[in-house]
């Protein structure tokens, strides 16, 4: 029995999230069914973190253990041949001894895309959130600064998934426009050592209130200090969110997994 | 009764092409049904050219005539509110007298995207063609040069749509790689005064044989001279093709319609 580590992308639109749920299509369930057909035994696939229904991944990292004579590259192709085309295993290798996709992850980066303004790019309709009014990026950046660092992020945690503690460290929070044809959508990138339930989407929903001028930038500091979910903005929709990369230490088989 | 001109984008994946066909979802049929609900009368929408099943448009131009009290911007929003989110009307204005979307078009530009290589970007799976082997762009560019100019393109016309004549002028044919995350897909852009049935897809299918090294660049010249469809390469799949822009003279209401 060997341990494997894979990097995979998925379009979350058709899935009820990463984690197996009875009767619902999930990314984990799809991968486990493919592996069972290939190696002839039940295989449990563990990802660096669960993503919610409708959330995408450019470079999720997952680990599993199984017995097979297939070389990793052949196994990778076999998995891709057994899954629909909205999931894609980009890399697969034998994992270092004791590798654990959740425990060994040092940091994760999420990216949220917003199309703001009267026009929309329909080719990005399943991978962005469209808002009709324009957002003030400078104000949002000013608000975002309060979130960087080690804080109790309880105000940005949705109910439903209790954690032992809600202190996390945000290493970087960047907001910038990028060119997509004539439009210039906005990307919000958050890198942290871990994320609470819906944390990125609640941060985005709050920063949007600042970008619209409904709240001043330092309102973000007040929300953070309140440690009270009811103080923050609404949860931004899942479709705009993508797990961008997961960072591991050298001992866990690689510096940084980044998408294709 | 006034004439209107609109610029629209669509994801062709779910449609049996532009043109109305009984019992099948089409872009024209969807727009005409929306207009009928809005203005309360049958409206015929004429595009600069029909696109085939599965082909996309970033900036298709279409014209129609109807009687309504709605201002053009209000009418545009009303149409968008009555169509699914894979079609989007980006612009709508009163057309110059006698405007005709087909007759007045001076040139059209199509863009075909190929992902070549072992890895694929699944977020572009409905807007590109994935080939597992890499293509030699320099060889393809050398082959493409033979096609620029005024020629009889009969060798690149699929059966099924007889034209009065098959002479067309290609103004430009550019092939280049562009960055999409780590991958560098290939874009083939063709601008011409008009296109025969499946002309771009047959040109792409032929240039791919050159890019793979299965044919030398000057084979394209032989195919062109033969005026015989059986000499050319296969038809590339529809999903990689997008109508990129349509050019009109100033009298027809604008230099160039380009996508949002």
**What is the straight-line distance between the termini of chain A?**
29 Å
CATH class of the largest domain in chain A: Alpha Beta
H/E element sequence of chain A: EHEEHEEEHEEEHHEE
Largest interface: A-B, 23 and 23 residues
Number of strands of chain A: 11
CATH architecture of the largest domain in chain A: 2-Layer Sandwich
Helix % of chain A is 10-25%
Structural class of chain A: alpha+beta
Mind explaining what this structure looks like?
2 copies of one chain form a homodimer. Chain A is an alpha+beta fold. Chain A folds into 2 domains: 2-103, Alpha-Beta Plaits (2-Layer Sandwich), CATH 3.30.70; 106-243, Pseudouridine synthase I, catalytic domain, C-terminal subdomain (Alpha-Beta Plaits). Chain A has 5 helices and 11 strands. In chain A, strands 1, 2, 3, 4, 5, 6, 7, 8, 9, 10 and 11 form an 11-stranded mixed beta sheet that branches. In chain A, a hairpin with a 7-residue loop joins strand 10 (241-248) and strand 11 (256-258). The longest helix of chain A is centred in the N-terminal third of the chain and has 13 residues, at 27-39. The mean pLDDT of chain A is 94.
């Amino acid at each position: 029995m060997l341990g494997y580590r894979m990097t995979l992308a998925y379009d979350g639109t058709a899935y009820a999230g990463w984690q197996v749920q009875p009767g619902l299509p999930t990314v984990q369930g799809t991968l486990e069914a493919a592996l069972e057909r290939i190696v002839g035994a039940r295989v449990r696939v563990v990802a660096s973190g669960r993503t919610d229904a409708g959330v995408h991944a450019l470079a999720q990292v997952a680990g599993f253990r199984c017995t097979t004579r297939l070389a990793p590259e052949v196994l990778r192709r076999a998995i891709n041949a057994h899954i629909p085309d909205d999931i894609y295993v980009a890399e697969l290798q034998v994992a270092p001894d004791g590798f654990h996709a959740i425990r060994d992850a040092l940091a994760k980066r999420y990216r949220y895309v917003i199309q703001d303004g009267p026009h929309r790019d329909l080719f990005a309709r399943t991978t962005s959130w469209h808002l009709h009014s324009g957002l003030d990026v400078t104000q949002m950046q000013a608000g975002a600064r309060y979130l960087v660092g080690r804080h109790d992020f309880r105000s940005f945690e949705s109910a439903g998934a209790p954690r032992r503690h809600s202190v996390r460290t945000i290493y970087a929070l960047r907001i910038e426009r990028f060119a997509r044809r004539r439009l210039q959508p906005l990307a919000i990138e958050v890198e942290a050592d871990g994320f609470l339930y819906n944390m990125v989407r609640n941060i985005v929903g709050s920063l949007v209130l600042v970008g619209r001028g409904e709240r001043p930038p330092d309102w973000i500091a007040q929300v953070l200090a309140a440690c009270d979910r009811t103080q923050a903005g609404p949860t931004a929709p899942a479709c705009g969110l993508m797990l961008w990369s997961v960072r591991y230490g050298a001992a866990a088989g690689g510096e940084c997994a980044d998408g294709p």
